[in-house]
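Input record (one chain):
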Amino acid sequence: MCMNGKYLTFRFFLPMCSLICIPKCFSSNVGNYPKKPMTSYLRFSTEQLPRFKAKHPDAKLSELIKKIAAAWRELPDAEKKVYEADFKAEWKAYKEAMGKFKEQLTPSQLVSFEKEVKQKRNKKKASIKKRELTLLGKPKRPRSAYNIYVSESFQETKDESAQGKLRTIYQAWKSLSNDEREAYIQLAKDDRIRYDNEMKSWEEQMAEVGRSDLIRRSVKRSGDIIED
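The corresponding structure, as predicted from the sequence alone:
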């Protein structure tokens, strides 16, 4: 049966993606469909990460990624072609396997399969993106005054359920005096300054390792125009 759920964090609620209902005879095969092969660089990174960790045990992951990226750039073309050839061969095998897999499905199963794969792919991309940013050390977003108040009050609030705690905290927040709220507003302003400073440093680091796609804004040298 298809269900929608929600999970709670101290900062907000995030709805889970609704699942698509498909026949049991089909859903039992979904997990067995061919998976895409790793790209040349991803395979290289996966192989090199343990080696760089061993060489630099005290280095941060972002530093290791920078070293791996530099090693890939310096890798001789002959060695890069080996990785590229492996990827092309695996990609060809993947396409053939996927074609045979789809041939076994009925038209209705194929429609359900494509919908589910698209949903899984989008969810996986979002998960990978989030995990990647965490591994790269992207600074945590600044919290609002209310978020800070919730995080401080959650454990101390007496209620059996998380939702009950949040309702109680919200009522308490509305009852705070202006002076009491101002203290949390100032904390939020300080947290924003922390975030801006950390993001500036982090974006400079991402530019150095060739990940300009992760930078929020670009600075044009002519006139130093900042684009959001």
